[in-house]
Amino acid sequence: MSPAPSTFDPTAHDAREMSTALDIPTAVDPLAEEQYRALSLLAVVSFGCGLLSALVLISVWLSLIAVLGVLVGLYAGYQVRRQPDELTGGGLARAGLILSLVMLIAGWARAGYVYATEVPEGYQRVSYAQLQPDNRRPGEIVPQSALALDGQRVFIKGYVYPGEQSRGIKRFVLCRDNGACCFGGQPKLTDMIQVDLEEPLTLDYSPFLKRLGGIFYVDRTEASDDLGGVLYRLEADYLR
């Protein structure tokens, strides 16, 4: 008996080839998966705070920026470690944390050094708190703490009250803060000191903190050009 003739089915052959092709596993590029991880927004914020923390070197009142950078950096690093398959940016968070911490320490160290060395020899540091009347003594205008400074060589810091003259100033009013000076407010009588600069000192107006030294006087009769009467005067021979 002769064998039955074989028949070739091209459709079945194509189906087998397609099935074999589908069974071959596809290689996954690990770098392709890596790029799908999102960059942590908090890590970016921490790094930005770290850069801005350099402002603490100018004023320690801006330390909040550095503190924020440290806290956000810590949390961003924790977040990245918890979700390593979804987030990246751990290095950025660490950089922001370290920058913020370094600038915070450096800023306060610098401020401490300046405070410890800014008073010239022969002067005593005075604060505006010593010039304020005691609320427990009704009617007191000049406190005993201010009277005790009369005729003494003192060092005090403050802000120049803006007047008509802006360059080559020889006489001006020194205020406790620049809030009242620069925004049109009227400073308290005990928050003002009339300053006369000795030769060869002169002053160009700026809204920044000034450091002055000289002989302090309590005088109820002297008047300033801009604000009427003043209680305190300073004949300054030191200006920074």
Full CATH superfamily name of the largest domain? Protein of unknown function (DUF3299)
Query: Over the alpha carbons, how many angstroms does the gyration radius reach?
Result: 36 Å
The coarse silhouette is elongated
What is the CATH class name of the largest domain?
Answer: Mainly Beta
Q: Give the overall pLDDT as a whole number.
A: 85
Provide a quick synopsis of the model.
This protein has 240 residues and is an alpha/beta fold. The chain has helices at 10-23, 30-34, 41-52, 63-82, 90-117, 144-147, 178-182, and strands spanning 38-39, 87-88, 124-125, 153-160, 171-175, 192-197, 210-218, 223-224, 228-229, 232-239. The protein contains seven helices and ten strands.
Describe it:
By secondary structure, this protein is an alpha/beta fold. It has two domains: 28-117; 124-239, Protein of unknown function (DUF3299) (OB fold (Dihydrolipoamide Acetyltransferase, E2P), Beta Barrel). Helices cover 37% and strands 19% of the residues. It has helices spanning 10-23, 30-34, 41-52, 63-82, 90-117, 144-147, 178-182, and strands at 38-39, 87-88, 124-125, 153-160, 171-175, 192-197, 210-218, 223-224, 228-229, 232-239. A five-stranded mixed β-barrel has the order 4-5-6-10-7. Strands 1-2 form a two-stranded parallel sheet. A hairpin with a 3-residue loop joins strand 8 (223-224) and strand 9. It is elongated. The mean pLDDT is 85.
